[in-house]
Amino acid sequence: MDYTMEDTQNSALDALEASKLNTSGQRNETQSVTKRLQAELMQLMIQPSPGISAFPDADGNLLSWTATITGPTETPYEGLNLKLTFAFPNNYPYSAPTVLFKTPIYHPNVDFSGRICLDILKDKWSAVYNVQSVLLSLQSLLGEPNNASPLNAQAAELWDSDQEEFKRHVLARHRDLDDD
Amino acid sequence: MLSTAPLNVGRRRVFGSVFSPASLEARPPFASSFNHDQTPFASFQSNGSSSTVETGSQATALSPGQQEPPADGEGWDRAWSAATAFLSVPNRGFAPIYESRETDGSEILKDWNRLSPPSKETGEALAYLTAAAQNTRPSPGATEPTDLFSWYGDEIRRHFLMNLRGGLYELLRTSENGSLLRTIVDCLQLARRIYLAPIVHWLLPLLPTADQGRVLTQLQRGFHTVVSYSLPWSEISKILAEELAQESLVILGIDTLFEESNSDESSQDGMDVDRQYSVSYEEWKQETTEAQAHMMTEGEQENVTMARDRLLAFLNGLQLVGLGGDKAQKVFAGVMNIMMTEFVRAAYTGKWETPTTATQHLRHWIENVFARLAVQVLAIIHTPSLGNQASGALDVSFGDVEKWQEMGIARLGALRTSELFDVIVEWPASSGAVEDLRHFTTHPAARAYVTQSFIAILNQRLLHPGASTVEILQLYISIIRAFHLLDPKGVLLDRIARPIRRYLRDRDDTVKVIVSGLLAEPHAADKQALPSSGDTLVELSTELAKAHQLSLQSNTSELDWDDMNWVPDPVDAAPDYRKSKSSDVIDSLISLFESKETFVKELQALLGDRLLQKREDFDQEMSVLELLKVRFGDSALQACEVMLKDISDSRRVDSSVRKDQGLSKPPARMHSKRPAQVQIPQLHAKILSRFFWPEIQDQEFKVPDEIAYLQHRYSTGFESLKSSRKLTWRNGLGQVTVELELGDRSFIDEVSTWQATVIYAFQSDQDDATKTISDLASELNMAAVLVRSACLFWVSKRILTEVHRDTFRVLEYLPTEDEQQGGAEAGSGVEGPGSPSADTANAAAAAEAAAAEAAKETAEAAAMEKMNLYWQFIVGMLTNQGAMPLQRIVMMLKIVVPGGFPFSNEELREFLAGMVSKRKLEIVSGGNYKLVH
Fold it and tell me: Catalytic residues per the record (chain A) (predicted)?
């Protein structure tokens, strides 16, 4: 455990070094992504939105983040901490990040491996979106699933028919990832 | 049957392993009859001489039959015994040889019966036996060495081992003096003469000329073998090396160099002696080219010539007695190797002037001095197998000399590399050394060597916390320049600079130093002798102006098709090596940081400070900004430009506002019959566009009513002038000229606004009013620390006095010394200072400390402000990534916080501890911090 941690630290430093030296074209591209992500992070830090949070992973290249959404009140997810991963492509923000739920979640638009069906993460992606807007969309998706195109049909059905049962499913599936 | 009694068994075994036992023991039978091994000297003498005569007569009888094969064993035996008796070497031990080693040896030769011609009979016996040997017929005795020469070879060996070996061994073991080897060689030479004299004189003429050489060589080789067997080479080589080193130091002129450097200045008078011959680099450099050519070849000094003769003679002897050959060559090579290093070190250490001719000098020296000695020496101690060496053939080819020259250059390069750090410290006075180095860095291995060893030195001497950032930057600038000269393509610099740049990035104050250097007054640099002496890099501002001019001249781009000087990148360039205008110091420094933003931000802060000063003009700042715009582009420096524009605009606005509001009365000097009619002070303002200015730390307080009134009027005036704008007063910034009239003195000085405000509060009251800090703080709405700082400032100016702790009173009349004492006692809260001057000094120090404290407090407040932002980062980090140890938090912060995380691990630990006590964090297992939900 300790060793791996040390490894990631080292590589993080290297990456830092590399990004500082900034010497090749390949890096230049990464550089602009990094810059954008850094700006987004800054924005998240300066103006935090309640219930959402995101931070880069410790690997140091800023291209993978972990985000946390706290389940909105008056939804079946109330009070639950839901973790997601963001993987940013090299040409971000011109392509959408890959967003997955890490926390097991029972939701009409999320399948059992955490994949999300959300238009702005697919064909409706635009460069004006950012981490914050994606997280806010997901937060609202928790309260208002799009049952027209479900990934989890049972959940979609249950959502419409039996909210109590739905919530039971949600809680049964939920598992806190906090202290792994 | 030969008695080898004196040799003990052990020795015999050793001999036996080297020499075939037969050759030692299978002596001709006749020899035993002489029995010389055991005969004491005296008796042998008589015995030997008598028998010589006797056998000689017998040989005569035989002589007629000498042509015939020695079928008649009798005759042959007689001849043999006569000849061997004549030739045998008397056993007189080592002592006589040792004692007469200094003489020419004729005496001992005579004494030992080596020169006296053989009697007629003996001569005939010799002739007979020689002829017999010529016929090379096996003798009747078959296995026995019937050849007289072989016998004599054995005789030499026997005698040497019995008489000389022990003595030489003893000599080698006991004596320590320097000329030991000479003594040994002398002894051996004498011995050699003793052995060979009769052969050369009497025996060889009997042989046909063709055989003479062969026989002699054979005997000599036998002698050499036994000599080199008897003397342990490991010890011989040691003293031989010493001997060679001693002489060659003189011959190669290295000793003079040492002397020169030791008595550098003191013996300046002696220098006018016309020394044509000198290997000194200093002197060589001063000569004309023509004189240089002759300098080392002609006019050799006497002691050098003597040393040379001595050495050559010595080596001759060495070669003669068989200690020469390839073994000696090896020793010689080792010595010469050391000599070259010594010479390079002695001749060039610390000689860094430009233009440099060190390489030419070194080549010249190697060709004319070093190689000359090598040729001379090698001609003597050649390998014996090349016995037929023609005198014309040199052992040293021209290629060898060139190789040596290359070696010399490499040594010089190594020397310069080791000196490189000091060279760069001395830059630019030391550019010659770098030019020398250029000759060395011609192949990748050498270049790698230079960079590696230099980086090692850098890490050791420069990149440590003890060196100030200014020093490091200063040196970095020198390195850039030096390496640009060394390697114009900048590949070496690229490699060297990496660790420096990495290190500089980790320094907090790097940007600050660079920016303040850029903004420094170049004129100040001219006045100062040492630009780097202060804590600013004044050099940078000069460089900035200069570099700009250069960049106007040459517009070098990669795709300059007409560039006739284009060369490809060197092979050892790093993969991500980027061609840069590496000599451009400013560019290198600015590019230290990934983004220009940190740089621009720092520039803004510094510019802000400077622009708020009360000065006539800001030309310097303007020109620097213009120059920087060339590098950064207009947009990056927009804010700075606005700042400058603010200042110049506000001058105009200021005058018009003041005119409109009637504020600019004829200079109203405060001839205050105080407090009755205080005239209206003058108020000037600088109007800043807040958005473009950096965060300005400001202390809030209430300004005196008069000032507030003026401010109000000024604001009105400004708002009427620029209708959509509004003025916010920054009371903490600015300067006030204060005039104080006290009971016995008046005081004028320029102070800061808050200091003025505090003293103003004292004025408005009656005489000898006392005020406490808390009073003032609430009255002025000012931070207590700041009030205290201001009060202490005035105490230091001897305007106020602290009667009790935190209670101050105007010092209307300066106390006499007695009063001072009394006052000190009365004010029991204050310690009684010894004298007024000490009092003032103390007060000044206290004021400074208080001011520093106040500044620190505001800075801390600002830092806490920033910490809140970092706290958001930490919350985000811990929310998403789970619990983390301190190390990792720091590391992540360093990565993700734009502009870097300015706090140390300890500071963060303290901050986090505070958060833990506020129950926002908890520490879980493994020292990990975790958010409390």
Answer: 117
